[in-house]
Amino acid sequence: MALIFLAGSLQNVGSGAGFYAYMSHVVMVAIFAPAFVLPLFTAGISIRRYWTHVGGGRIALKDLRKALQDVATMRDLSVGQEQGCNFEDEDRFSNARRVAHQFVLWGFLLCFAATSSGTLLHYVFDLHAPYGFFSLPKLLGVPGGLMLSAGTAWMIRLKLSADGALADARVRGGDMAFVVLLFAVSTSGLLLYAATGTALVPLLLTFHLATVLTLFLTLPYSKFVHGFYRLAAMIKNAKAAK
């Protein structure tokens, strides 16, 4: 994918300022809109089947609110006594996984909010990229990228130090690949912003776009989808706890 994007940038298909000098806005939308919407549609079918299978029924607002609170605080990763989980050693508990997950979750949400705000600025207010540091996309995206990079790097270290006997070996490679991919997405985005105006932009842009596209296309089949299932399970749990 990186080679395809690089070939496109070398053909001077871009027009405009900033990143659009290497690839036009129209081309980016034509590539990424289907790559984002179609995997979400696929994941939505899967989640709907799961919800029907477990007898989820109608979702009440208070159940959704309770589930979102649990997701935001990662309550399930604190275990019953708030001492965390024993992912490294059966006799030693830690909240490290919980905090690392929170960095990843909130970092990703901030990055998504940054992209959404840029979309609104472009289509609603006719304000086109590149945006300055004190613009909403940057004020959301830079902290989000830093949190996502730090959180995924932390999770990689935790996975490497964890007791392999406590995990399912069949999914270990896929889990690690997903975290590494998230790290590549966030870190390449930060490096791309730092390299603005330099000769490194074309190479970093193609790599960053390739990692983002890979993340989208593999969404229904990677560890990414566990977030949707976990939220659905927590909603079901909130309904059962009435």
| Total domain units | 1
Overall, the morphology is: globular
The total count of strands amounts to: 2
| Low-confidence parts | none
Strand content: under 5%
String of helices and strands: HHHEEHHHHH
Radius of gyration, CA atoms, in whole angstroms: 20 Å
SS element count, helices: 8
Q: Order of strands across the widest beta sheet?
A: 1-2
Terminus-to-terminus distance: 48 Å
**Chain-averaged pLDDT:** 86
Main sheet?
Answer: 2 strands, antiparallel
How would you classify the helix and strand content by structural class? Answer: mainly alpha
How helix-rich are the residues, as a percent range?
55-70%
List the helices and strands and how they pair.
Blueprint: H1 2-10, H2 25-53, H3 61-73, E1 85-89, E2 92-94, H4 96-123, H5 136-161, H6 169-194, H7 201-217, H8 226-240
Antiparallel strand pairs: 1-2
Helix pairs in contact: 1-7, 3-8, 4-5, 5-6, 6-7
